[in-house]
Amino acid sequence: MLNRKDLLGLEDLTKEEIVTILDTASSFKEVLERPIRKVPALRGKTVVNLFFEPSTRTRISFEMAEKRLSADTISFSQTGSSVSKGETLKDTAKNIEAMEIDAIVIRHSESGAPHFLARNLDSVVINAGDGSHEHPTQGLLDLLTVREKKGNLAGLKMVIIGDIAHSRVARSDIWGFTKLGADVSICGPSTMIPAEVEKFGVRVHTRIEEALEGVDVVNVLRIQLERQGQPLFPSVREYAKLFGIDGEKLKRAKSDCIVMHPGPINRGVEIDNEVADGAHSVILGQVTNGVAVRMAVLYLLVGKSAPFLPLEEGEKDH
Q1: Residue 266 CA to chain centroid, in angstroms?
Q2: C-alpha distances out from residue 7 to 3, 135, 195, 257, Å
Q3: pLDDT of residue 262
Q4: Distance CA 20, CA 267 (A)
Q5: What would the 3-class secondary structure string for the chain be?
Q6: Long-range CB contacts (< 8 A, 24+ apart) of 179-182?
Q7: In this structure, which of 44, 133, 171, 252 has its CB flanked by the most CB atoms within 10 Å?
């Protein structure tokens, strides 16, 4: 079990807590392969999904995880809500909590929004991505995917390529992979590299050929034009030429390297079709692992010691 109320980021998790989540997620992958892919761990619990930003895979993944755990789920978007009428985030969350819920999953464009709610609510708060800060469950599913493919993460060489400055995925990956002993580098245009990022324990490259040399894991990030106040590179075409991952560039990595991408993919920009759909790609495996990781986080924070037992026949639609 995790001795904490909330999951806000990987920065403040210990190595042992991360391993506990990954081990629990591995157990839930077995549950997802059963004939009845549902357990009663969160039966009677209510989870509210507060998504203030558009999301497809993360939102569906959380909803799927909650349903697999038999939780009652409610999904909320800003459009048409009291927030669009001027209600504050705190008032919205406090009113929802007053309806006797157990947990809130929040995605928000402002960094720190989950931390703010965690300080003001008694309910469990799970960060589903806040601004450019962290995306902890994405970091955890990345860790689980690499651990499945490579075994021990200690000593693995990993490079994260792309818009590091605006990527909450990059931050969670840096915290998670370095804590588990991986050798992490980052690469991108100098305009996309945060100042003093070396303090996070990573090496910085601005030449893709140098960054890919002999790596075990390549994590390609989406170019987040919506978070850039002004373009940070001359053109998409030039970015694709210099930093887009194609088969030729990938030859510099180890022959058994794996390629990840958090999605959604800009094909032909940050990654070519031959790589996204090729033998090295584990991108769809990441999506599958996302459900298991989110089940693990919900179980450890909300379900506590409930067993993994499958539902009895006739209970699966409960």
Answers
A1: 18
A2: 11, 10, 26, 30
A3: 95
A4: 35
A5: CCCCCCECCCCCCCHHHHHHHHHHHHHHHHHHCCCCCCCCCCCCCEEEEEECCCCCHHHHHHHHHHHHCCCEEEEEECCCCHHHHCCCHHHHHHHHHCCCCCEEEEEECCCCHHHHHHHHCCCEEEEEEECCCECHHHHHHHHHHHHHHHCCCCCCEEEEECCCCCCHHHHHHHHHHHHCCCEEEEECCHHHCCCCHHHHCCEEECCHHHHHCCCCEEEECCCCHHHCCCCCCCCHHHHHHHHCECHHHHCCCCCCCEEECCCCCCECCCECHHHHCCCCECHHHHHHHHHHHHHHHHHHHHHCCCCCCCCCCCCCCC
A6: 179/10, 179/13, 179/14, 179/15, 179/18, 180/15, 180/18, 180/19, 180/143, 180/153, 180/154, 181/152, 181/153, 181/154, 181/155, 181/156, 182/146, 182/153, 182/154, 182/155, 182/156, 182/157, 182/158, 182/217
A7: 171
Q: In what order do the strands lie in the sheet with 258-260?
A: 203-205, 183-187, 157-161, 217-220, 258-260
Q: Which tokens hold the place of 227? A: 């978070």
Q: What is the pTM of this model?
A: 0.92
Residue 295 carries which side chain, given as an amino acid letter?
M
Return the structure tokens found at 189: 């245009």
Nearest to 107 by CA among 175, 174, 164, 57: 57
| pLDDT at residue 182, as a whole number | 98
The predicted pLDDT at position 223 comes to 83
**Per-residue confidence band for 2, with pLDDT thresholds at 50, 70 and 90:** confident
Give yes or no for a contact between 308 and 41, defined as CB atoms under 8 angstroms apart.
yes
- What whole-number distance in Å separates Cα of residue 311 and Cα of residue 294? 19
Residue 318 has pLDDT above 90, yes or no: no
Residue 87 binned pLDDT confidence (cut-offs 50, 70, 90): confident
- How many C-alpha atoms does 210 have within 13 Å on its Cβ side? 9
| Contact indicator for 40, 67 with CB cutoff of 8 Å | no
